[in-house]
């Protein structure tokens, strides 16, 4: 069983829709949870960074962490074609440990 | 935010040759740099962790004699793929970690290696 599971998609939604991206994980020791966005043939860029459980909002993006269910989500409101990319969830045991990435979900926003 | 560059962005080489990829932190000092490999439609797989001035720590299954990593300064790490073969063709991405409280990693734009 992989430490982090993420549906690879592809996921296609119309412009303006709310997008929900999710990951599950198996190890309760994870404490830091991140979402990265990666455009084709580019390096990943950090979107959201959350420590422990709870919600975090940044503009059109909301990250949720439910440690009791070992489940994290990223919501994108008012989705735009420029949001089309691969979204990777990622986790850390501690701030000094290596990042464990999900497989990434390919998202396409249709104009 | 902090910027990490990689050079070259794309390289094509013949089988059996060696290729060097550079990773630089442009506006901060990185005590730790990481090298990842990403195959098409797959996630990033950590190859090795590099600390300035010391030997790199390789992940299980990564050949240290094939993928030579040098981290000679706080702003530069290099990955040399020795005796490259077509199966080494991949997207290689580095990241650099600051020593701040969040220990955030900043990723480079990646280097696409094609071995003929």
How would you describe the overall organization of this protein?
The complex is a heterodimer of chains A (111) and B (116). In chain A, 0% of the residues lie in helices and 55% in strands. Chain A starts with a strand and ends with a strand. The model of chain A has no long low-confidence stretch (mean pLDDT 93). Chain B is mainly beta and 116 residues long. Chain B contains no helices and eleven strands. In chain B, strands 2, 4, 5, 6, 9, 10 and 11 form a seven-stranded mixed beta sheet that branches. Chain B has a four-stranded antiparallel beta sheet with strand order 1-3-8-7, with no helix packed on it. Chains A and B meet through β5 of A and β9 and β10 of B.
Q: Which term fits the overall shape of chain B?
A: globular
Spans where pLDDT lies below 50 across 5 or more residues of chain B: none
Helix content of chain A: under 10%
Unreliable spans of chain A: none
Sketch the topology of chain B as an H/E string, one letter per element: EEEEEEEEEEE
Mean pLDDT level of chain A: 93
Write a brief structural summary.
The complex is a heterodimer of chains A (111) and B (116). With 111 residues, chain A is an all-beta fold.
Ordered list of secondary-structure elements with their pairings:
The complex is a heterodimer of chains A (111) and B (116).
Chain A lengths: L3 E3 L4 E4 L4 E7 L6 E7 L6 E7 L2 E5 L2 E6 L4 E6 L8 E8 L7 E2 L3 E6 L1
Parallel strand pairs in A: 2-11
Antiparallel strand pairs in A: 1-3, 3-8, 4-5, 4-9, 6-7, 7-8, 9-10, 9-11
Chain B lengths: L3 E4 L2 E4 L5 E7 L6 E7 L6 E7 L5 E2 L8 E7 L2 E6 L8 E8 L7 E3 L3 E5 L1
Parallel strand pairs in B: 2-11
Antiparallel strand pairs in B: 1-3, 3-8, 4-5, 4-9, 5-6, 7-8, 9-10, 9-11
